TrEMBL record:
Protein name: Diacylglycerol kinase family protein
UniProt-annotated catalytic positions: E68
Protein family according to the UniProt entry: Belongs to the bacterial diacylglycerol kinase family.
Recorded superkingdom: Bacteria
Cofactor binding annotation: Mn(2+), Zn(2+), Cd(2+) and Co(2+) support activity to lesser extents.
Keywords: ATP-binding, Cell membrane, Kinase, Lipid biosynthesis, Lipid metabolism, Magnesium, Membrane, Metal-binding, Nucleotide-binding, Phospholipid biosynthesis, Phospholipid metabolism, Transferase, Transmembrane, Transmembrane helix
Transmembrane residue ranges: 34-52, 58-78, 99-120
Biological process annotations from GO: phospholipid biosynthetic process
Cofactor requirements of the protein: Mg(2+)
Binding site for substrate: E68
Amino acid sequence: MDKDRKNPLIQSFGYAFEGIWACIRKERNMKIHCLAVILVTLAGTLFQITASEWCVCLLLFALVASLELVNTAIEAVVDLVTEEKKPLAKLAKDTAAGAVLFSAIVSVIAGCIIFLPYLLELAEKL
């Protein structure tokens, strides 16, 4: 068999989905992100947010989840390479986690901008 031959496309997708499911199963923070996606989706459906607002939500879902996947990959590689406490290993792990946190904070701010007017309108009706 030719070693330079690439995996069939469907097999590549399979590996990618394996990685996503492994992260959801094993990573507490990814479970929290998935719960947030479900809650925001329910709220968006309830309040009938606009197409533009849905696009913002979808992009932010993708950003946070993608960064969590990358963070998990970086942590796994660092742990594979060394068990010792090394400053560069700590920097790699901390900055990857920081990227996830930063995107999550910005997502919450954007969520407030999108959903607060709907919540205030609902409160006025009650």
